[in-house]
């Protein structure tokens, strides 16, 4: 694994990376000017890299990461970067270069090889570098959690990861074990986790960036299913090994609060992760069971493979009641239906708060981690009908699965006026141009980072 260190003070360089805009007045070789955006050419001791002014931040990071992965062997130990970007676009480029060191299969048993990158003098470069490093390292941490094999990522492990981050970056984290979960009446979380030899946990992380207030400006709730067999309604064996990625929502939410702490954002933020392993055992919840939930509402289990919404129901209800955040956002790899609707290009966004929708949508466009709004109309309420409980955990209608799941979650928000749900399985884990296998993307970290910056500037998003 390569560890890249970025310097703003000049160091001796024998190789230079020279991005340029096509048809610009900047100097580039005649050959380089024939390149299209995303293409590069190596000449003598330089790389000429054609970039586009239309790339969003995610696209900038992607292209610079790909350039780094493909050409790093030519750089030597102390390359320089002569780049016509500033501000957030420069940060994205540096983030992409830093993320080129990520390897989902690394066992971390060898010392990292270091590479020093000199960025030519740019105003406020030190702050830019610091933020880029925080963004890249936090996103790679979230990716690593998703890519870990399930035997190294139990719910208790996830709790340990959260505690380690909190200790390192100076915020609070509490992890409840199953006994505490039962005492706290988090019945739905316990019901999902009781079928596994790895017991469930309930993670509560808190970052206080505003000493003048004890109120939470923002709370994240992330689905933390560390492996999903489907339970008694068991999944097919083909590709089940990819279900190690079913906690990508939790990884993004844990990453978001870590990044807020590292950047010292002026917000009070909480991240809540109900985490369990959905396994098959004599104690597993059964189709047809009626279970209680933290909210007091009863749930009929139609399909045990619709477990993510069960743990989130307790996470949302607990957060709304106990933390009373001004804004609450949950994120989850919840339904295949959202992938069938939107493919691998955007996550589904649900909310009735117009300001919150606008802020999240614009954050998606700016960061490049895109969202598309879906309906929460009352017309879909009947999809949750149960003859024996308050709600069922799965609609019996073979349509609108993502919408029905969002409507289910809405039941447990106690009509919170600034709640949003993000359904993102198609965005979190997929084929990668960087590796031979599918791997985590870290989707959500940069989206939520952009949103948190916007919220810090305008904290009245909870008001319609």
Automatic annotation (TrEMBL):
GO terms for molecular function: manganese ion binding; metalloaminopeptidase activity. InterPro entries: Leucine_aapep/pepB, Peptidase_M17_C. Residues 141-448 form the Cytosol aminopeptidase domain. GO terms for biological process: proteolysis. It comes from the Bacteria. One of its GO terms (cellular component) is cytoplasm. Coiled coil: none annotated. CDD domains: Peptidase_M17. Keywords: Aminopeptidase, Hydrolase, Manganese, Protease. SUPFAM superfamilies: Zn-dependent exopeptidases. Gene3D superfamilies: Zn peptidases (3.40.630.10). Pfam families: Peptidase_M17 (PF00883). Belongs to the peptidase M17 family. This is Leucyl aminopeptidase family protein.
């Amino acid at each position: 694994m390569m560890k890249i260190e970025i310097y703003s003070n000049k160091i001796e360089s024998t190789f230079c990376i020279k991005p340029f805009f096509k048809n610009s007045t900047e100097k580039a070789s005649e050959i380089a000017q024939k390149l299209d955006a995303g293409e590069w050419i190596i000449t003598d001791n330089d790389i000429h890299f054609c970039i586009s002014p239309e790339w969003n931040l995610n696209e900038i990071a992607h292209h610079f990461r790909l350039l780094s992965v493909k050409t790093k062997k030519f750089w030597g130990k102390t390359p320089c970067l002569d780049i016509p970007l500033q501000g957030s676009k420069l940060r994205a480029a540096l983030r992409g270069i830093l993320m080129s060191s990520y390897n989902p299969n690394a066992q971390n048993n060898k010392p990292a090889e270091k590479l020093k990158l000199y960025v030519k003098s740019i105003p406020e470069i030190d702050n830019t570098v610091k933020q880029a490093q925080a963004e890249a390292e936090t996103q790679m941490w979230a990716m690593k959690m998703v890519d870990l094999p399930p035997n190294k990522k139990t719910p208790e492990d996830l709790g340990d990861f959260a505690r380690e981050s909190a200790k390192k970056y100076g915020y609070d984290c509490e992890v409840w074990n199953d006994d505490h979960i039962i005492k706290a009446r988090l019945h739905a979380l316990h019901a999902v986790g009781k079928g596994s030899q790895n017991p469930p946990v309930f993670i509560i992380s808190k970052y206080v960036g505003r000493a003048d207030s004890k109120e939470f400006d923002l709370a994240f709730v992330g689905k933390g299913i560390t492996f999903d067999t489907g339970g008694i309604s068991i999944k097919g064996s083909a590709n089940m090994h990819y279900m190690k990625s079913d906690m990508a929502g939790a990884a993004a939410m844990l990453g978001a609060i870590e990044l807020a702490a590292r950047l010292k954002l002026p917000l009070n933020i909480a991240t809540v992760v109900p985490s369990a392993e959905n396994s098959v055992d004599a104690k597993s919840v059964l189709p047809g069971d009626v279970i209680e939930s933290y909210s007091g509402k009863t749930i009929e289990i139609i399909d045990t493979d619709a477990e993510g919404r069960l743990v989130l129901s307790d996470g949302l209800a607990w957060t709304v009641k106990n933390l009373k955040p001004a804004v609450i956002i949950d994120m989850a790899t919840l339904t295949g239906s959202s992938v069938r609707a939107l493919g691998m290009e955007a996550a589904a966004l649900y909310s009735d708060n117009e300001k919150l929708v606008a802020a999240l949508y614009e954050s998606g466009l700016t960061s490049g981690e895109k969202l598309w709004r879906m309906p929460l109309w009352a017309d879909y309420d009947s999809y949750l009908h149960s003859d024996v409980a308050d709600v069922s955990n799965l609609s019996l209608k073979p349509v609108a699965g993502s919408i029905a799941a969002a409507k289910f979650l809405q039941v447990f928000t106690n009509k919170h006026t600034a709640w949003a749900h993000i359904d993102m399985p198609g965005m979190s884990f997929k084929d990668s141009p960087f590796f031979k296998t599918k791997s985590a993307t870290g989707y959500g970290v940069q989206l939520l980072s952009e949103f948190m910056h916007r919220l810090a500037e305008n904290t009245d998003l909870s008001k319609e």
